[in-house]
Specification:
single chain; about 350 residues; mainly beta; five-stranded mixed β-sheet; four-stranded antiparallel β-sheet; about 10% helix; disordered N terminus
Length: about 350
């Protein structure tokens, strides 16, 4: 077929003119996605649409069966692990418990028997090994944790100190992917809705928080949050979300979560799939968890530095407890360990 008469899509010739637009190949899709992002950013919509597929789709497409992972061009930014990691670096340690390696995070394990209620969420993280040329990071251990529908963190917050739900580890498969079944987290005062995660080089390393090769957070798109927070049980999240912006968040605000904003599909009735591509470079020294105190965090004190990857690391307001935004009575403090470090030399954490 002469080049001038080939089928075109948005002014570009299709490399496979006899096939549908969605079957034109990865290079064509990536070019289409890049062009769409430029237009959306010009309209001020880019932050909410990073999860769009190259040839159609929405970050909250009702009833969608899956979600393309939002992608990062490089290494995922190091971020604070927060005061409630449950990895032994600040009190409780879930990683030494039998049962932590699991895919369904909604129930507690071991001696605990509670279940976290909320809108269903499937969380998919796809790890890329930047030190190995950017291919799949297979065999890595990924530890995930987040707050419940009321904004509480199990093992720490008032009312759930005897629970360990919404925490778990999965080993990445041959494609570098881990998948968890969970619930959509709340928005508590002072923070944009998010999910914490740590990446360890292998399963044997998860018992030592100092062996994490990456510590970061995933940001949830505003459109999905607004849909979820209209459901029963999420009432406190509505005013909390209204009081924060992604650009004003103390973790994501430096770049609008450019490489941490997840792609989301689904709806509140059927549940959501939340996906993110995570670039991990084992050649760089991880600095996740290094905070800068602002006087609102127990312990106070001057700034101790900021994480690498461009994050401000500023501590947000008081973390959640019995109600979103309230510190949990009896929770471990945020004062540094002797020497100011977590096990393995990593620094202390803030929310």
């Amino acid at each position: 077929m002469p080049r001038s008469s080939r089928r075109r899509y948005r002014g570009r010739a299709l490399p496979r003119p006899d096939e549908e637009v969605v079957d034109q190949g990865l290079a064509f899709d990536l070019a289409t996605l890049a062009g769409r992002r430029q237009v959306l950013r010009a309209l001020g919509l880019g932050a909410l649409t990073l999860g769009l597929t190259a040839c159609g789709g929405d970050t909250t497409a009702p009833g969608a069966a899956g979600s393309p992972a939002a992608t990062s061009a490089g290494e995922i930014p190091d971020e604070t692990a927060g005061p409630y990691p449950g990895d032994g670096s600040n009190g409780p340690d879930a990683l030494n418990h039998s049962g932590i390696v699991r895919s369904d995070l909604r129930t507690s394990f071991g001696a605990a028997a509670g279940t976290a209620a909320g809108v269903p969420m499937t969380l998919e993280l796809t790890l890329r090994d930047l030190a190995g040329g950017g291919g799949p990071f297979a065999g890595a251990a990924v530890y995930v944790w987040h707050c419940d529908r009321e904004g509480r963190y199990s093992m720490y917050s008032a009312g759930v100190t005897d629970q360990n739900y919404l925490r778990g580890v999965q080993l990445s498969d041959a494609q570098g992917r881990v998948r968890f079944t969970s619930i959509f987290p709340a928005c508590y005062a002072g923070r944009w809705p998010h999910v914490h995660f740590e990446v360890y080089p292998d399963r044997a390393s998860i018992t030592d928080a100092g062996k994490a090769v990456a510590t970061s957070q995933l940001a949830l798109p505003e459109a999905a949050c607004r849909q979820v927070y209209g459901r029963s049980g999420y009432g406190a999240s509505v005013p909390n979300l209204a009081g924060i912006t992604l650009g004003g968040d103390t973790v994501f605000g430096d770049d609008g979560a450019r490489s941490q904003l997840a792609a989301v599909t689904g709806d509140p009735a059927a549940g959501y799939t939340v996906a993110l591509a995570v670039g991990v470079d084992t050649r760089t020294a991880p600095r996740g968890g290094q905070p800068a105190h602002d006087g609102q965090t127990p312990g106070g004190g001057p700034p101790r530095g900021t994480p690498s990857g461009g994050s401000s690391g500023r501590a947000p307001g008081p973390p959640p407890g019995g109600t979103p935004g309230a510190p949990p009575p009896g929770a471990p403090g945020l004062l540094p360990r002797p020497g100011g470090a977590r096990p393995g030399g990593a620094p202390p954490a803030t929310p």
